[in-house]
Specification:
0% strand; single chain; 379 residues; mainly alpha
Length: 379
């Protein structure tokens, strides 16, 4: 999961800026938050790909390896952060650029194309028709002109409608309560690629577009009193998730594949995402925005901070780490050969190496990175 950089400080996954990146023009706390998401993304993937334990019987693994399973689970918030920040960044960009509609549409198309290129680069993970976080963010940017023209109240309506539609489409398609990697890339099913993009891919439009709209609301509320409103909204979403999942526990006899189960059951996997977990993840991602800004206000500003720099090359790191630690490792025979301790050391080394690289690369404006390339293509 990853993305590119907006001007005027948003540093948001999913789009590159159309202006020169000056330190004074960026919201450093947002860049740093995206950097945190990059680290979590890499640790989750590398942990799954390097650790020699098969990912079966998770309850048993949790009992024997609580640290490894807990550490890996932290990575689950990475994609929600990226998507929420993409929505946040789209609003900031539309406030700063007169060419926002053209730029966003172009960025959206380029990122979708980059997503399909990513599919081809990592065939052990994706099929040519897979719909991953890059595709979702690209699509969101493509329609961001429309979303940025509607009222905040309308964004809440869209947010709610997307979540409700997700459960309805999952029920209509009879989507299993857990879909594996092969199923999420199977475009031979009725509906083909559209089915994956809409409801059954890795990060389908339903319900993941809701994260993008939530990020837009957070950006519109930025300013005096905005942090408090974002925190209240985050709390309301968390409360709604707990109420729904509580009802689901009382109604535990509900049909496993039924419609109401998808709105009421809290499950650990978001493949596919049911309503309670969707609300929890949106809540956490939203709360991290004012938290990051508060931390920055209480400490030295995030200027030339490793987290900021990591956030600026998130798309490059997404594709590079997947090719190296997934595709190359499988083809060279060192996939899933590490003990738990060795896996943690590998993750630490990748974190450190990526941080140093990002700090050094910042001096040249991240020249020749994928973010830089997209800016060059758009001119």
């Amino acid at each position: 999961m990853i993305m590119l950089n907006y001007p005027a400080g948003t540093g948001t996954p999913g789009a590159a800026d159309n202006m020169k990146n000056t330190g004074a023009s960026r919201i450093r706390s947002i860049d740093a938050l995206r950097g945190v998401a990059v680290l979590l993304m890499m640790e989750q993937h590398i942990g799954a790909w390097m650790w020699k334990q098969p990912w079966k019987n998770l309850a048993g693994l949790l009992d024997k390896h609580p640290f490894m399973i807990g550490f890996n689970a932290l990575g689950g918030i990475a994609a929600p952060i990226f998507i929420v920040l993409a929505g946040f960044g789209s609003v900031m960009f539309f406030h700063k650029s007169e060419r926002a509609s053209q730029v966003m549409a172009g960025r959206g198309i380029l990122i979708i194309l980059m997503g399909y290129l990513f599919n081809l680069l990592v065939p052990s993970w994706f099929t040519p028709g897979s719909w991953y976080v890059l595709h979702l963010i690209g699509f969101s940017l493509l329609i961001s002109t429309f979303l940025n023209r509607v009222s905040t109240g309308s964004l809440f309506v869209i947010f709610t409608a997307v979540i409700i539609a997700a459960g309805c489409f999952q029920a209509y398609l009879d989507t299993p309560s857990f879909i594996n990697n092969r199923r999420m890339g199977d475009y031979s099913m009725p509906g083909g690629v559209l089915r994956l993009a809409l409801a059954e891919g890795h990060f389908p439009v339903l319900p993941w577009l809701s994260f993008f709209t939530a990020g837009m609301v957070a950006a519109r509320w930025r300013g005096p009193g905005g942090k408090r409103r974002i925190i209240v909204l985050s709390g309301l979403m968390m409360s709604a998730a707990l109420v729904l999942s509580g009802i689901g526990m009382i109604c535990s006899g509900s049909d496993e594949g039924g419609l109401m189960v998808r709105f009421l059951r809290l499950k650990s996997s978001f493949y596919p995402a049911y309503t309670p977990l969707t609300l929890i993840l949106v809540s956490i991602a939203l709360a991290l925005i004012p938290a990051a800004e508060w931390i920055e206000s209480k400490t030295v500003p995030f200027v030339k901070n490793p987290l900021v720099c990591l956030g600026r090359i998130s798309l490059t790191l997404l594709i590079a780490h997947a090719v190296i630690f997934r595709e190359v490792s499988i083809r060279t025979g060192w996939h899933k050969l590490c003990t738990a301790q060795e896996t943690v050391l590998v993750i630490g080394a990748v974190w450190l190496g990526s941080a140093v690289l990002s700090l050094l690369w910042e001096k040249s404006g991240y020249r020749f990175g994928l973010e830089w390339l997209i800016r060059r293509i758009q001119g």
